[in-house]
Amino acid sequence: MDNRFPLKKLVVIIEDDAAIRMLVEEMMTDFFNHCVSFRTADEGLQYLASVQGVCDLVIADYGVPGALTGADLLNEVKQRWPEVPLMLTSGYASEVIEIPSHVLFLQKPWSMEALSQAVRQVSFKPL
C-alpha cells in the first residue's frame, strides 16, 4: 500500500458470490483495519443501521439476492449517512439503469489494480 494513504477503519462489502467476496475482503486489508461482508443488501443495511452508519466505505454488487439491490442499499446509505463513500459493482452494466452521481461504478470483471484504484479514488485523499 502507498503510505501516503492512512489506513481506514472499516469497509462493508455486499457481494453474493462467496469467492469474489473473499477476494475483496482480502484485498481490502491493505486499506482497512476491518472488513465486514454480507451476501445480501438487506443484511448489509441491517448491520449499517446497528452501527449508525459508522464505516469508511460501502462496496455493493448490484445483483444481490433479497428485497434490495446493491443500488437500493447505496441510495439508502446516502440518505441516512451522506458522508460514507460508496462504490457499486456489476457484471451486467445494462441492468444498472442509472448510476447516482454520489456512487463510483466499477464494471465486473475488474482487475485487482482497478479495484485498488477505485478504492483510492472514492475513499482516500493524499496527505
From TrEMBL:
SUPFAM superfamilies tied to this protein: CheY-like (SSF52172)
Keyword annotations from UniProtKB, A to Z: Phosphoprotein
One GO-annotated biological process of the protein: phosphorelay signal transduction system
Pfam family for this entry, one: Response_reg
Domain Response regulatory: 10-123
Residue(s) carrying 4-aspartylphosphate: D61
Superkingdom to which the source organism belongs: Bacteria
Coiled coil (residue ranges): none
Protein's name in the database: Response regulator
Transmembrane parts of this sequence: none
Gene3D superfamilies: 3.40.50.2300
